[in-house]
Structures are given as C-alpha cells and as structure tokens.
UniProtKB/TrEMBL annotation:
The UniProt record lists the keyword Chloroplast: no
Catalytic reactions on record: 2,5-dichlorocyclohexa-2,5-dien-1,4-diol + NAD(+) = 2,5-dichlorohydroquinone + NADH + H(+)
Protein name (database record): SDR family oxidoreductase
Recorded superkingdom: Bacteria
Length: 259
C-alpha cells in the first residue's frame, strides 16, 4: 500500500465491476483517481466510498475527451495511470444475426473508446512534470484468443485492442517517452452482473457450476485479483513492462487435456 502515492489515475467505466474494484485498489495504494461513466447514482456511491472524482462522460465521445483533458490539466496537473476499462456486450450476436447498429455501437465503445482513452492519456502523460512518463492499461478479455461464436463484435474488439496496446507501446517507446502500455485479459470474473445472471437462472447451482467450470481452477476470478494486476502494472515495479498481454483467467485459455 502507498506505492502509488503522488500519482493521478483515470479509470473508465469505474461505476461497477472491474472498474469500481480498480478505483478502490488504486485509491488504497495512494493514487488520486478520476473515474468515468454515465450512471450518476452508482458514481455517487463510489465517490462516497472512496473519495474518487467522478467525470461523467462517454468513452466514444471526442467532445467529452476534450473536456476531460482540460479538467485534468486545470485540476490535477498530471496523469500517471490510465485504465481503459469501459466496455459493453449489449446487442451482440453471431455474424449472421448481429444488426449493423449494434455492431457500430460495440465498435464505438469497445475499440474507439479505448483508442481515445490511450490517445488522451499519451497527450497528458507527455506533458507530465519531470518528463513524459505513465502507464496505460487496457482491459481486453480471454476472448481475444478464444472467440465466441455468439458474440462476434465483442470478440473482435477485444482482439483488436491488443494490437492497439502494442502499437501504443511501440510508439511511446520510439518517441523516447517512458509511457508504457499493457493489456490484461480476464477470464470469467464474479461480478454483480454475473451473480445476477446466476441467481435468475432456473437452476442457479447449475449456472454457477457452468461458469466455474470454464476455468481449470474450477472457480471464477475475484474482482480484487483483477484490480491487483491493474495496480501492479500501474506501479513503478512494472517499469520495464510494455507491450505485454497478461492473461488472468485461471488457465482457461492455456490449453486442454489430451485423450
């Protein structure tokens, strides 16, 4: 604890799930945290619990990013950490059934939103007092490597952001900046949303077993475990890690047993 003291962090989609857990962990480690989202009631709960600063915005909106950059420059004077976490699955389907409107919305949030997060973060981090330094962390998914046939847009965007991560890392390094960019690839994590699906299932025990059975460790990931990885990559302990993918899925995508 305290290893992020003096640092300013951004978490997109910070009102629930992995985003909220990351806000809580970064605050606990000493950072000043700004989080974004659109659910003001949920944001008020996070702010009351952590003291983090809420900035209402949509990650796919260029205008909102202009406002965000101006706010950070005037109110905080620096940005050291950016966790590009915001994402969605709503409206997704198979390649045969997905509507173009749903495809375009998923691309806008899950891919363009991550690019705008990274673009704004690099712009701010380049001007940090003491020189261009910082850590950008992108929330991808194990489905970047194991695509889902019934979630074509989600799978596509989670793969695409890995290339975005690596391109950003290479660009920053070749520009002579100590700005790192890495991706995390979570497996099934026990969020409120997943618990809600389980509890609403006709056979909740079977639904839970199905989710837990996706990992050879026979359990879902914990929010705290994902947040701990984000905090590590945000810290100076990870100062030589850039352009990397960190799978955190309980060996779900590592391989399979032989026959």
């Amino acid at each position: 604890m305290g290893k992020l003291t003096g640092k300013v962090a951004l978490v997109t989609g910070g009102t629930s799930g992995i985003g909220r857990a990351a806000v809580e962990r970064l605050i606990a480690d000493g950072a000043k945290v700004i989080f974004t989202g659109s659910n003001e009631a949920a944001a008020a709960e996070v702010t009351a619990a952590t003291g983090a600063t809420f900035f209402k915005s949509r990650v796919q909106s260029t205008d909102d990013w202009v406002r965000f950059e101006a706010m950070v420059r005037s109110d905080f004077g620096r940005l050291d950490i950016a966790f590009a976490n915001a994402g969605m699955e709503r409206g997704d389907s198979s390649v045969e059934k997905i509507a173009i409107e749903a495809w375009e919305e998923l691309i806008a949030v899950n891919l363009t939103g991550v690019m705008l997060t990274a673009q704004t973060a690099v712009r701010l981090m380049r001007d940090n007092p003491g020189g261009p330094t910082g850590s950008i962390i992108v929330n991808s998914s194990m489905n970047a490597h194991n695509a889902m046939g019934n979630f074509v847009a989600y799978s596509t965007t989670k793969t695409a952001v890995l290339a975005l991560t690596k391109s950003t890392a290479i660009h920053c390094a070749t520009e002579g900046m100590q700005i790192r960019c890495n991706a995390i690839l979570p497996g099934v994590v026990e969020t409120d949303m997943i618990r809600g699906i389980i509890n609403k299932s006709p056979d909740s025990a079977a639904a839970r077993a199905a989710y837990e059975g996706m990992s050879p460790l026979k359990r879902m990931g914990k929010l705290e475990e994902i947040a701990a990885l984000v905090a590590f990559l945000a810290s100076d302990e990870a100062s030589f890690i850039s352009g990397a993918e960190y799978v955190i899925d309980g060996a779900s995508t590592a391989g399979m047993l032989g026959v």
